[in-house]
Amino acid sequence: MKHLQPTEAWRWLQAQADQPPERRPLFVDVRMEIESLYVGRPPGVVNIPWYEYPDLRPDPQDFARRVEEEAGDKTRPILLICRSGKRTLDAGAALEAAGFTDVAHVVHGFEGELNEHFHRSSVNGWRFEGLPWEQM
Fold first, then answer.
1. Within 10 A of 59 (CB to CB), how many other CB atoms are there?
2. pLDDT tens digits, one per residue of 67-123
3. HEC string of the chain?
4. Which residues contact residue 111 at a Cβ distance below 8 angstroms, ignoring those fewer than 6 apart?
5. Rounded to an integer, what distance in angstroms lies between the CA atom of residue 108 and that of residue 100?
6. 45, pLDDT greater than 90
7. pLDDT at position 92, please?
8. CA distance 100 to 93
9. What is the edge-to-edge ordering of all strands in the sheet holding 103-106?
């Protein structure tokens, strides 16, 4: 799995914009749907939760199946993002175990690490870097 800093990930996505749609990286937000909608998310991201409420337990095979349905092909580049870059490590490992060949994740995720006051988006992450995002 490739580990991309937020700005690297954004530049990579932009550099692939001229590819045919089926070869452009599939940008997957693995957070729960409510997290993605209300906290905010990068534009163009597809939400496929690693786990969802109320179970809060991942099903790696089902996750890989849903990503493959959306991607159309296990060779399509996949970019994963979550809140802090932790869930994407497990989700990416599950995709690689399922045969995906080009998986990357956004280091520090959308909100980044906690600061000394237990706040996110103030140390690192997608939003901290000033990259495009939207919110419901």
1. 14
2. 999 999 999 999 999 999 999 999 999 999 999 999 999 999 999 999 999 999 989
3. CEEECHHHHHHHHHHCCCCCCCCCCEEEECCCHHHHHHHCECCCCEECCCCCCCCCCCCHHHHHHHHHHHHCCCCCCEEEECCCCCHHHHHHHHHHHCCCCCEEEECCCCCCCCCCCCCCCCCCCCCCCCCCCECC
4. 39, 83, 84, 120, 121, 125, 126, 127, 128
5. 22
6. yes
7. 98
8. 9
9. 2-4, 103-106, 78-81, 26-29, 46-47
One-letter amino acid of 20: P
Q: Are strands 78-81 and 26-29 parallel, antiparallel or unpaired?
A: parallel
Structure tokens at 68: 């493959």
Query: Band of the pLDDT at 136, cuts 50, 70, 90?
Result: confident
Distance in angstroms (rounded) separating the CA atoms of residues 93 and 30: 13
Q: Return the residue matching tokens 């991201």.
A: 45
**Tokens of residue 87, six digits:** 């869930």
